[in-house]
Write a structure and sequence with these properties.
β6, α4 and β7 form a beta-alpha-beta unit. This protein has 282 residues and is α/β, with parallel strands linked by helices. It has eleven helices and 13 strands. The strands form three sheets. A six-stranded mixed β-sheet has the order 10-9-8-13-11-12, with helices on both faces. The chain has a four-stranded parallel β-sheet with strand order 2-1-6-7, sandwiched between helices. Strands 4-3-5 form a three-stranded antiparallel β-sheet, covered by helices on one side. It starts with a strand and ends in a 5-residue tail after the last strand. It folds into two domains: 147 residues, Rossmann fold (3-Layer(aba) Sandwich), CATH 3.40.50; 127 residues, Hypothetical Protein Tm841, Chain: A,domain 3 (2-Layer Sandwich), CATH 3.30.1180.10.
Length: 282
């Protein structure tokens, strides 16, 4: 059987990686004021310029059941079945919409709630492709990915809290305190939800180093097949520090990607994360 891997555009993989692992994506809608764009039609620079000008975050619109149905139908003209990944159901209605659409295809579409976002979804999608290429049944692979979602370490460290404040994810008091003390918080995906984890202070280059070291110390049973370094904007030094630390730790493949408009809308610029699967003891 020829099996497709698909995902919504919050997967944040480069075109090269999407092509290499034959992953097809469906774009999320981004609203800047009254104007609607599909993810990919605008850039993070467009998002940040809009927020700077208006003080208002863009809105994202989940792919609805009709669009998912049309998407799956088109993919199935070339493939026998689909394993589809969506951003955490705690963050969007897309998973539920995709499940509803999948019921039109007589078991040919398996939908996985990633419980994460950004390139952490990519970790699961790439792993699924590898298992399919090894000859495993697509339903068994989908079940394995559902079980593996709880082991994905997905976190970011951010420079400023103003985007989280605009999005209603932190209080004005926390924003004031963070600005006065120059706190750089890390955000961790746990049980499908984003939450504050650790707090850092200082220049972002120093913060990235400490964040990477702390993350690898805390989540210390990684599958070393690959790790993502994913950022919204970052200095070359921030990226190189993260790459150097995870390389020295022993990851076989270090993949650098840039987050898309969805993650950028929540976290703002100078946000960087390392993302990997943390289940080598299982």
């Amino acid at each position: 059987m020829k099996i497709a891997i698909t995902a919504d555009s919050t997967i944040d993989l480069t075109n090269e990686l999407l092509h290499k692992y034959d992953i097809k994506t469906i774009p999320v809608s981004i609203l800047l004021g009254e104007t609607e764009y599909l993810d990919g039609e605008i850039t993070l620079e467009d998002v940040f310029a809009y927020v700077d000008k208006t003080g208002v975050l863009p809105k994202t619109s989940a792919v609805n059941e009709v669009r998912f149905t049309e998407f799956f139908e088109k993919v199935l003209t070339e493939y026998d079945a689909i394993i589809h990944f969506d951003i955490s159901s705690e963050a969007s209605a897309m998973y539920n919409n995709a499940v509803a659409a999948s019921k039109n295809f007589n078991g040919k579409v398996e939908v996985v709630d990633s419980r994460v976002l950004s390139s952490a979804i990519g970790l699961l999608a790439i792993n699924a492709r590898e298992l399919l290429d090894a000859g495993e049944d697509y339903k068994a692979v989908a079940d394995k990915m559902r079980k593996r979602t709880s082991s994905v370490q997905a976190s970011f460290v951010i420079e400023r809290l103003d985007y989280l404040f605009k999005g209603g994810r932190c209080s004005s008091l926390a924003l004031l305190g963070a600005n006065i003390l120059k706190i750089r918080p890390s955000i961790l995906l746990k049980d499908g939800k984003m939450g504050s984890h650790n707090k850092y202070r200082g220049k972002m280059e120093m913060v990235v180093r400490k964040y990477c070291e702390d993350t690898l110390k805390e989540f210390n049973t990684p599958d070393k097949s690959r790790v993502f370094v994913t950022y919204t904007t970052a200095t070359d030094e921030m990226i190189e520090i993260a790459k150097s630390i995870v390389t020295e730790y022993g990851f076989n493949e270090v993949l650098v990607t840039r987050a898309g408009c969805t993650v950028g809308s929540h976290c703002g610029g100078n946000t960087l994360g390392i993302l990997y699967i943390n289940d080598s003891n299982d």
